[in-house]
Structure formats: structure tokens, C-alpha cells
Amino acid sequence: MSGFAAIGECMIELSGANGDQWRMGFAGDTLNTTWYVRALTNPDFAVDYVTAFGDDPFSVKQRNFLRDNGISTARSPTIVGSRPGIYAITLTGTERSFTYWRNDAAARHLADDPDVLARSLDSRQVIYFSGITMGILSPRNRQNVLNAVSSARRQGSLIVFDANYRARLWENADTARQVLSNAFHVTDIALPTFPDENTLFGDATPTDTAARIAGYGVREIVVKDGTEPALVVAGGASTEVPASQAHAVDTTGAGDSFNGAYIASRLAGLDPLVAAANAHKVAARVVEFHGALAPMEEAQKAFKA
């Protein structure tokens, strides 16, 4: 087993500058995490992003962007006639809101062919996916992803999952609860965010979130909670790890960068508490930049600080 693969959607990101000037980039929750895994692991360590691309010029730019930054795309298919989804970030102070155009995005077809998906995940040391990955897919493709992840896990891959609940992606809350619960059942490391879990499952505290997820059989859980301490449950112990101080200008990539740094730390053999502390440091640096993808070298400096 070797390498890391994440499953999800690479979107065009529009982030505001001054007035009506916008900067175009590429992002998406699992892609953001992949960016930081790439930044914080050895360059020889294989990092892949498993998605589906359109056949338009912007999809070509996506593939080139990933390649140029050391991220491969495994067997990700090209969907003829499709194009990337788009989102725009609007900031009020440091808090962000999003506007999306993604209904016909190519990534919705990433699991159309279960055999191709399975080959993209074959022999990976770590596989990462999220509730957003699941939310954009059809019911059949959601099951294809769960089947592929479960099969990879039986073959020895470590599965990492962040429920990352976004109500607008789901038919209804009951469907989201069922699908995300099924995903937790095939997960080794869970990286949920407390406000999301509170909204969907009604958990009163991060401890309640960790207890519920442990009930699915997950043995390593890190409950993120913004600038509050992260709750780490691993090895039979439950410990709060304080957040790092930051001069935030844009919190878009906070949780995703935390996840990437946590995964990179665990890949390096560091224990969960050290991994969470490293993740806080990286997230604190990332929110000091606009957009989801801070420069890799800045993430590296924070990781080593």
C-alpha cells in the first residue's frame, strides 16, 4: 500500500479582490485537503485526486493545474459535453458565503463506472472522501463510492472521512443522515466539524458527536470546532487540543487544511495529538490568505513551526 487518493469535485473558485474584480482559481473541499497533503508530504509520495473532468478549456486548465502542483488524477474520466462547477466567495469581514453553479458539473459522474473508480483507488495507503463528495452524486453513484471505499478498506487502505454536511446538496435531511452514517461505517479516521454535526444530527456537544461516531465503529475521531479546541478521541482517551492564534482574512480553507495537515502528520507516523496540533498551526496560517489554497510553502513553514 502506498500513496494518497481523495475523491471529490474540483471547482472553479472565484474570490473577490477589489470592487468587481475577481480572481479565478481551483478548489473544492476534498481538493483543498489534497493540496495540503501534497504540500506536507515527501515529493516522492504519490498524491492523486479522483474526480471527473469535462472536455472544455477550463477542464484542461484544471488537469494542468493539478499536474503542475504534483497532484495526479489516477483514472479520472473525461465526460464529453460536461464542464466544471463554479463557486464565488463573498466575504463579510472574515466570514464567507458561497454562490454555486454546479448542477451539470462533470464531477457528478465520477462514479458512473465503478470499475474505473476502483482502479483509481487500488493499493492506496490512505483514501479520503467527504459528505460533499457524496452529496453531489446520484443515489446509485453514492453507493458506487461506498462500495469502492469499502472494498479498498478490506484490502488494507486506511479510510478518512469528513461528513462536511451542506444541506443544499441533499434531497432532505433524512437522506443525508442515512448516507453519511453509512460512510462513517466504512471509516477509520473521522474528521467531522461540530457545527455541521449539530445541525444534521442534533449533537449537543463535540463529546456527543465523538460518541455517536464511535458507535459506528470509528476508532480515531477529531471533532473540529472553528477557533475552539479540537476534540481528539483515540487510543481510549479523549483530549482537547487548543487552536492556534491567527489574523484571519478568509476562513474558506480552514477545515480542509486542518484535515490535510492531520492526514500528513499521521502518514509521517505522528500520534493523533501531535497531528491535531500541527493541523491547527497550518489552518491558522491558511486563513491569513484569501481563497482556499494558500501557497504550499507557507503551509510547510507552519507545519514545521
UniProtKB/TrEMBL annotation:
InterPro entries: Carboh/pur_kinase_PfkB_CS (IPR002173), PfkB_Carbo_kinase (IPR050306), PfkB_dom (IPR011611), Ribokinase-like (IPR029056). The keyword Ubl conjugation does not apply. Keywords: Kinase, Transferase. PROSITE patterns: PFKB_KINASES_2. GO terms for biological process: D-galacturonate catabolic process; D-glucuronate catabolic process; DNA damage response. Coiled coil: none annotated. One of its GO terms (cellular component) is cytosol. Gene3D superfamilies: 3.40.1190.20. GO terms for molecular function: 2-dehydro-3-deoxygluconokinase activity. The keyword Transcription does not apply. Residues 5-297 form the Carbohydrate kinase PfkB domain. It comes from the Bacteria. Belongs to the carbohydrate kinase PfkB family. This is 2-dehydro-3-deoxygluconokinase. The lineage of its organism: Bacteria, Pseudomonadati, Pseudomonadota, Alphaproteobacteria, Hyphomicrobiales.
